[in-house]
């Protein structure tokens, strides 16, 4: 049974938000078919790392690419065999119940209307918007919302879960490389959708942590830029991953 932890923290004007929701171990989470098809839109480093890991778990992975017949994409499909394929993004999304946007956010804004009806699908959002630069350091865009909330607004019939936006693609490909546990914070409005993502996350050897509703994605997008700023401050010689270790309450 999933172990639940939550606490409320006062913010600024006294608004109370759930800052740390349930921690769900993937092996115990219910509600997902471990072999359901996953569309991975994007064939770059993140999409390739996640797609190959999911394929190794037995999922049918459909890579969404503007050039599905290119040699680079064909090579990725071969590396993800035997249940992998590639198609244009709209076809890939239509063939799967889970759609991962392993792309930069900015081109996704124009891509969304071309993807067809995403109603009922689980959307995994690992995206971060292009940062604004302050004194040579990256910060989230000067906006009152998050990529995940904007995405959910664009696909109201789907279930958006923010996940995988803080992990290095190399550690996603090989979690043991980090030398210890890696937390994957999850934010979303639908608890069932988060349980499905938690199961996938646990099966990948990572530690899912439910941090609350979709508005909590704003915290997660800031976390990414904290990591990037840390790397930049240390001249690219130091990296870190996040582990949200539970403590007794």
CATH homologous superfamily classification: NAD(P)-binding Rossmann-like Domain
Overall geometry = globular
β-sheet strand percentage:
15-25%
List the quaternary state of the chains. single chain
Distance between the termini: 19 Å
Mean model confidence by pLDDT: 86
User: Number of helical segments?
Assistant: 8
Which CATH architecture is right? Answer: 3-Layer(aba) Sandwich
Unreliable segments (pLDDT under 50, ≥5 consecutive)? 1-22, 25-32
SS-derived structural category: alpha/beta
How many domains, as an integer?
1
CATH topology: Rossmann fold
* Major sheet: arrangement of strands: 5-4-3-6-7-10-11-12
Largest sheet: 8 strands, mixed
Helix amount: 25-40%
CATH class: Alpha Beta
Rg over alpha carbons: 18 Å
Order of helices and strands: EEEHEHEHEHEEEHEHEHEH
General description of the model:
By secondary structure, this protein is α/β, with parallel strands linked by helices. 31% of the residues lie in helices and 21% in strands. It has helices at 45-56, 71-79, 89-94, 105-111, 147-154, 169-173, 191-203, 217-233, and strands at residues 7-11, 15-20, 38-41, 61-64, 84-87, 98-101, 122-125, 132-134, 137-139, 159-162, 183-188, 207-212. An 8-stranded mixed β-sheet has the order 5-4-3-6-7-10-11-12, with helices on both faces. A two-stranded antiparallel sheet has the order 1-2.
Describe, in short, the structure shown:
With 249 residues, this protein is α/β, with parallel strands linked by helices. It has one domain: NAD(P)-binding Rossmann-like Domain (Rossmann fold, 3-Layer(aba) Sandwich), CATH 3.40.50.720. The protein contains eight helices and twelve strands.
